[in-house]
Amino acid sequence: MVVSSLKLQDFIEEIRGAKTQAQEREVIQKESAHIRASFRDGDPVQRHRQLAKLLYVHMLGYPAHFGQMECLKLIASPRFIDKRVGYLGAMLLLDERHDAHLLITNSIKNDLSQGVQPVQGLALCTLSTMGSAEMCRDLATEVEKLLLRPGPYVRKKAILTAVHMIRKVPELSDIFLPPCAKLLHERHHGILLGTITLIMELCQRSPAALRHFRKVVPKLVQILRTLVTTGYSTEHSISGVSDPFLQVQILRVLRILGRNHEESSETMNDLLAQVATNTNTSRNAGSAVLFETVLTIMDIRSAAGLRVLAVNILGHFLLNSDKNIRYVALTSLLRVVQSDHSAVQRHRPTVVECLRETDASLSRRALELSLALVNSSNVQAMTQELQAFLESCPPDLRADCASGILLAAERFAPTKRWHIDTILHVLTTAGAYVRDDAVANLTQLIGGAQELHAYSVHRLYHALAEDISQQPLVQVAAWCIGEYGDFLLENCEETEPLQVEEEEVVALLEKVLQSHMSLPATRGYALTALMKLSTRLQGDTNRIRQVVSIYGSCLDVELQQRAVEYNMLFQKYDHMRAAILEKMPLVDHGSREADEKAKESREAAQLSKAKGPVPTELQTSKLLDLLDLLDDASGDTQQPAPPNPSPEGGLVHLLDLPCAPPPPAPIPNLKVFEREGVRLNLSFARHPGTPALLLITVTTTNSSEDDVTHFICQAAVPKSFQLQLQAPSGNTAPARGGVPITQLFRILNPNKAPLRLKLRLTYNHFGQSVQEIFEVNNLPVETWQ
């Protein structure tokens, strides 16, 4: 007995009635077999019913590919009921990956040419959903004709299909430019909304279209003014706002047309002020319109007073009870803080209040904005607020907060003592979350402030006595006690008077060495500090000698080697111990003054070389550099004989420093990326104190007509290298060669292995999100040899 096929409604009920997944699969497999058999029989009456059931099977995630050709047959049918199911099946079962989608091009073309609006609507919906680039090129003329046909039903769908075509094939822009200007005179809001969306897509993808539509800015301003001044309309008003969807879309296209264009910006200034002051923000619809108005004001070349008004609106958003509106306000203020810093500063108390939000996303945005608001005039007050936030903030925000405070203190510290106190507070509160270079920076700062040596060592000793769990704090304290431990025995007027005995200092360092919380690097700091105290303190050094000898058999190789060397100092070279363990001379790492002096000295050296009559020496040094690059591959290579000095040049050679090596040849710059006006250049420099350390400055420039926003550059190197990425100068590259984005990479290459970089770029450009991942293998040889 042959079981008849189920109707669609019965089929759905039976699937929903299945108690297990196995029962569901059994029902679907049985009905799929009936559907296949019906397709083989070729029954034209039952075809659309069987395909409807198959589409439901597809929606449940089961295979339905065998119905693709049936979709084509139904689309070619003259009956509307067949076309409806056939087009729906094509939208669900076909896409660009299947060649079968090209077979319906002729059917769509024929249906678009008919005068039946429902059929034209089906064809347009299908084309806008799964139309490939080839289909768009073949059918663009038919869609362009429908844009100006009477009747809003087909015209709305034709406009949305044109939007899809522009996204697929941007070179079709010229076809749709003329109809858009005529469509702006329509009174139907649906057609206007679609037309403005089409104009936006054209402007984002074609500079010629952008210049063309700047002529219609007055018309767009007129449409928006009519919407703002029109009273309540039951058809279009939402929460008392007249068609907010159309207003938002007009504001977005005005933002694109007014960007970097003075005349268009001037035309829309008055209207934007009117929208900003008259929009009711008691409901979400009004807030959305007002937010888009603010974004438009900040993106175009608006008047200064209008920009202040926009920032004040965002500040008012911060007081809203809706968390989403507050988040949007914080994100927008973070974008404009660089261009309108003083205007955003007025809302600093409100931003600081947002730090106390329980919502993690809000507090993170408030932290980023608070750090961006820090400057030389408010650094002390803002740092105090950020330190209070650091004590109670969630663990996932502590690293960002601690790093932000340290960077702000480094840039805007009013005094060295305040700078030291700020870093100590951060290390005490969140020492485990600070950056890797915090220890080196603080030791550098303390070493350079000779008048604060006694104060620093007392503060660090007290902090270490209270808590030895914060490893960066312990390392700095151990280093400072080892260098300036003799000041502990004296009273410091700037700290609380406390008598410290030599035995207490040694016992505290022993406690650090024995603690299970101490890292191997921390134990190395403590052991070195004990060794240096043997020359700083006046008492007996036998206790220190015993502790050092114990670690001569430590399992940690680095600590063991250090202890063995220190034991040798006690046993064989005790007469040299005081000289060897003198206070460390500090080298100025990366300070601005040092960089400026180094630059001046390089310029002076280049000037003296240009004036001096030593061209032969320059050629000789270049030849020697070339021979060095060969790594002495040929052992019998003879060095060129030095030129005979002339009598006039003898005095010059006597005044030169013969032991100073010639300055290294500059490493040539390298362009590694260029796309649509966005260019990435790498410049290289060697660290003067560490030859194995390569400094790469990444410079991102933008010569296009649109700003590059949310720019992020990430890098990776092989495991044998050590890479540190410094914070970039910003995340926005203005159009037309504005201020570039710079970022410093610090790469340590102790093995002198060939250098390879893998870069990942993400940014927004021309309204699109761009992500590029590429490898740089053509770095100059000088970067790793």
UniProtKB/TrEMBL annotation:
A Pfam family that this protein carries is Alpha_adaptinC2
- Gene Ontology CC terms: AP-1 adaptor complex; synapse
Name of this chain's protein: AP-1 complex subunit gamma
Q: Give the family this protein belongs to, as stated in its UniProt record.
A: Belongs to the adaptor complexes large subunit family.
Q: Which InterPro entries match?
A: Adaptor_Complx_Large_Subunit, AP1_complex_gsu, ARM-like, ARM-type_fold, Clathrin/coatomer_adapt-like_N, Clathrin_a/b/g-adaptin_app_Ig, Clathrin_app_Ig-like_sf, GAE_dom
Q: Which gene encodes it?
A: AP1G2
Membrane topology, record value: Peripheral membrane protein
Record-linked PROSITE patterns: GAE
Annotated organism of origin: Chinchilla lanigera (Long-tailed chinchilla)
Principal location class:
membrane
Chain segments annotated as coiled-coil in the UniProt record: none
Q: Where in the cell is it found?
A: Cytoplasmic vesicle membrane; Endomembrane system; Golgi apparatus
Annotated region described as Disordered, given as residue ranges: 591-614, 632-657
**Where does the record place Basic and acidic residues bias?**
591-603
Mind listing the UniProt keywords for this protein, alphabetically? Cytoplasmic vesicle, Golgi apparatus, Membrane, Protein transport, Transport
Per the UniProt entry, what is one GO biological process? intracellular protein transport
Domain named GAE is located at 665-780
